[in-house]
Amino acid sequence: MRETRHLGSAARGRIVLAHGQRLPTHAHDRGHLVYPATGVLSVTTAGGTWIAPPTRVAWTPAAFEHHHTAHGDADMRILFLSGALAARLPAHPAVLTVSRLAREALLALTAEEAETGGRAPEAVDRLRAVVVDELTAAPEQPLHLPEPADDRLRALTGILYADPANQQTLAELGARVGASERTLSRLFGQELSMSFHQWRTQLRVHHALARLAAGKSVTDTALACGWANATSFIEAFAALVGETPGRYRNRQLHTEGG
Asked: Which residues cross the membrane (predicted)?
């Protein structure tokens, strides 16, 4: 991944990133929301990776070290929150559903003209409050890929990161990393609070979001990410992302095409 150091523009509310571009690891003294008006953004901390398509917003509390990566050309909007507003959101990084109202408020607050747009400070505060009101009504979304600590789990997840289409069972992967299926199943629950199947599905959806944002077809993406057919891929994708992969891909291409 290419890395960029243009963090100064974050204070102005907008950074445009090319596909594969990555911001360096950093932390802020205020919690902030990141919304991809186009493309897909991932937020990675020591605890794992959260991924946000344009139907979602990523929340990172103050002091969490993290970095962002763009999948597809991403129009990244950043909104810093006061301590009082931040306290209403989770104390950990999260991905939340962005309503139409929250989306329009985020875009208005982070538009280039917002710096000199003439809104009174109290009007800006009200818009920020609207965003938080909408997000507090939205449940956390299962778009977090947690990072394991156990060496055996790290070896296993490394295999799947490198090849998300890998079809080996947990027992077969266990033979490669030196652990039984029972032990690995227990570790997934204890360390990652999800099953092996749930984790692998999350990983594949993460890869699928990036491929679709880059313009790959739904069928090619399904096969590249390990699904046996497009139907099962569409069902898994829609359950996590909130829309079908075809609709998501078409919207990305339409947006990037102007």
From this structure: none
DSSP string, 121-167: HHHHHHHHHHHHHHHHTSPBPS-EEEPP-SHHHHHHHHHHHH-TT--
pLDDT digits (tens, 9 = 90+) for 232-255: 999 999 988 878 999 888 876 665
pLDDT digits (tens, 9 = 90+) for 43-81: 999 888 998 888 889 999 999 999 999 987 889 999 999
Of 102, 204, 187, the C-alpha closest to 149 is 187
CA separation, residue 234 to residues 2, 179, 240, 253 (Å):
30, 33, 10, 18
Q: How far apart are CA 50 and CA 205, in angstroms?
A: 12
67-80/14-17 β-pairing: antiparallel
Q: How is residue 150 written in tokens?
A: 């156990």
